Structure formats: structure tokens, C-alpha cells
């Protein structure tokens, strides 16, 4: 296993490093994670960003990296176990039975980032950025880190969430206690069984350049119709939702970006170009305040589910919001 930095096969000018992991609690060894960077993008970083992707996703958003590079921040992206660059033939894509299992690679990545930035004379202060399911994983990790490892947590100065998945969208009956018990019961014995659900490529078609979008990415690691959801994985997600709903404290200033509206379609429709067609933005608004003591929630008009993959004029608005937040929190 190559654990040094090497050229990334997906992004020109970027490098990737394999992070070996301990044996998989879910029995799909071998597993690892991958950290991605653009070398020499910033000479003496004023800080760093550690980015965490969502479900059916991996890091390819180089425009986001460029945004932070231009502001003097080194940018690193983590492909979690069984996701993106870390997905192998023996893996159930994106499967975990406990979101806390991701703490291993998140902690390792944070250490690498702070060590590398310090080594070139930069500031080992890190903004964690996360999207969708990553926007659930990262706050839960920081909440645990704040109490379990305050020294490591001390390197994190902010949290930027892009359409975090904070509740289960759809029919309210899916959110009842009875539904939760059913999901958990099936998940405990047949965790990798797929949950029956209608398929939709509306979001993927709105993004990919082969369909209606402007972005190019690997359709094996990010298929247009998404990977199947499983009962074990959903059990882990719902446990995370309950934890957030009870109130957590990430311990750092937090910016939550989301669209101003949702529009759900079974197939591509122009409406999904200017709305979140994956999550219910009202739920994001409802639960954002449960993340910590200092949370700024902003609705970006006409944003997509991945706010930073919205159409150009909307991306400019979103980046301006990030600039204002950073100036307010970190440049006083």
C-alpha cells in the first residue's frame, strides 16, 4: 500500500495519499481512506480547510479548493472509507453501521493537515467543511472531539456546512418512532439489505456535463442515480439525527448554507437547477440551531443541493457569504 503522496488519477495537478485504517467493524476489509491536496498551492498558509464529502460523492470540486487557496488557506479533502477513491470491489459503497467509525480517518487527516501546514511555517488552524451526509458526520465528530480530545479539537477554528443532512426527508411517517424501530430492527440483522425506494437521476443529471450540467466527474464513484441506501447505514444516520436533535456543541463558529427551496422530481426538470432536489431545506433550517452555540444559517437563493455546484451566479452569492463569515469570525 502506497502511503506517501502521489499524483491523483482523478484531478490533474492534485496529489492523493492513502490512510491505512484498522480492521473494518463491518467486515469488508481491507479498508482505507484517502486524503487529497494540491501541492504548493499556498506558500505559507494562514490556515487550512479539511473537506468531507456527502453520500454518493467524492472530492472533485476544485473550484471550492481554488476559492480557499486564493485566500491563503491550504485545502485538503478526505474521501472516507468505502467512498470515492477509497471504494474497492469488496465494499458496499458508503456503508457504515456507525457514523463514529469515521472518527478514525477524520482524526488522522486532521493530524496530517496540521503537521504539514506547521512544517511550512503556516498556522495549524483548520476550518472543517462538509456537505450533505458529511454535514452530519462532521458535527457529530467535533462534538465528540471537543470532550474526548480537546487538544486535537483546539486546532479546529470553524465549521462550514453545505446543505447538511440533519433529518429524514419525505413522508412524515418515515420519521415516526415505529419507523425508526423497524429500520433499526432490520439493520441489526440485515444491515446491507437495500431499502426499497424510487430511483431518480434528477440531481445527477442536473450536475454532470454528459447530461444537463457543467461538471465532469467519475460516474463509477458518483453514479447519476446514486448508490442504494441500506438498512444498516440508515440506522446509523437516524441515530446521528437523533443526537443532533437533542442538541450538540461543535465548539466552533459554524456557517450553514442551504438553498431557499426544495423541488423533488423523479427525473430531470429545469426546476432542480435552482433548488435542493435531495433534502428538505425546511428541515435544515429547523435543526441548524442544534449544532452549537454560534451558528449562522443562510439560505442562498436558487442554490442546488451542493451549494457550490449551483449555477454560476448562485455560486458567487454562496462564496460571498463564506467571505463575510470568515471576515467576521477569523479576521478581527
TrEMBL record:
InterPro entries: AB_hydrolase_fold, Hydrolase_4
Signal peptide: none
Molecular-function annotations in GO: hydrolase activity
Keywords: Hydrolase
SUPFAM superfamilies, alphabetized: alpha/beta-Hydrolases
The keyword Translocase appears for this protein: no
Pfam families recorded: Hydrolase_4
Keyword Hydrolase: yes
Domain Serine aminopeptidase S33: from-to ranges: 44-186
Protein name: Alpha/beta hydrolase
Species whose genome carries this gene: Gordonia liuliyuniae
Amino acid at each position: 500500500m502506497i502511503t506517501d503522496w502521489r499524483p491523483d488519477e482523478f484531478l490533474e495537478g492534485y496529489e492523493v495519499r492513502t490512510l491505512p485504517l484498522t480492521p473494518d467493524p463491518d467486515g469488508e476489509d481491507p479498508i482505507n481512506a484517502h486524503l487529497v491536496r494540491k501541492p504548493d498551492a499556498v506558500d505559507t498558509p494562514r490556515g487550512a480547510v479539511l473537506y468531507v464529502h456527502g453520500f454518493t460523492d467524492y472530492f472533485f470540486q476544485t473550484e471550492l479548493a481554488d476559492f480557499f487557496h486564493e485566500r491563503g488557506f491550504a485545502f485538503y479533502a478526505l474521501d472516507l472509507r468505502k467512498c470515492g477513491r477509497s471504494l474497492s470491489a469488496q465494499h458496499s459503497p458508503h456503508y457504515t453501521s456507525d457514523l463514529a467509525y469515521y472518527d478514525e480517518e477524520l482524526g488522522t487527516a486532521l493530524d496530517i493537515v496540521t503537521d504539514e501546514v506547521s512544517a511550512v511555517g503556516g498556522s495549524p488552524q483548520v476550518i472543517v467543511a462538509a456537505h450533505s451526509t458529511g454535514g452530519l458526520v462532521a458535527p457529530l465528530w467535533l462534538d465528540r472531539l471537543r470532550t474526548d480530545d480537546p487538544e486535537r479539537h483546539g486546532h479546529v477554528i470553524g465549521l462550514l456546512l453545505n446543505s447538511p443532512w440533519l433529518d429524514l426527508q419525505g413522508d412524515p411517517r418515515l420519521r415516526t418512532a415505529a419507523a425508526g424501530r423497524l429500520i433499526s430492527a432490520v439493520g441489526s440483522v440485515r444491515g446491507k439489505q437495500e431499502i426499497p425506494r424510487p430511483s431518480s437521476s434528477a440531481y445527477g443529471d442536473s450536475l454532470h456535463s454528459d447530461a444537463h450540467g457543467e461538471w465532469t466527474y467519475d460516474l463509477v464513484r458518483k453514479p447519476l442515480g446514486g448508490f442504494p441506501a441500506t438498512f444498516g447505514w440508515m440506522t446509523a444516520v437516524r441515530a446521528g439525527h437523533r443526537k443532533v436533535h437533542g442538541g450538540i456543541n461543535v465548539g466552533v463558529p459554524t456557517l450553514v448554507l442551504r438553498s431557499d427551496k426544495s423541488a423533488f422530481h423523479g427525473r430531470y426538470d429545469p426546476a432542480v437547477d435552482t433548488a435542493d432536489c435531495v433534502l428538505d431545506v425546511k428541515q435544515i433550517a429547523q435543526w441548524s440551531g442544534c449544532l452549537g452555540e454560534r451558528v449562522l444559517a443562510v439560505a442562498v437563493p436558487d442554490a442546488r443541493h451542493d451549494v457550490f455546484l449551483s449555477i454560476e451566479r448562485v455560486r458567487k452569492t454562496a462564496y460571498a457569504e463564506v467571505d463575510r463569515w470568515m471576515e467576521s469570525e477569523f479576521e478581527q
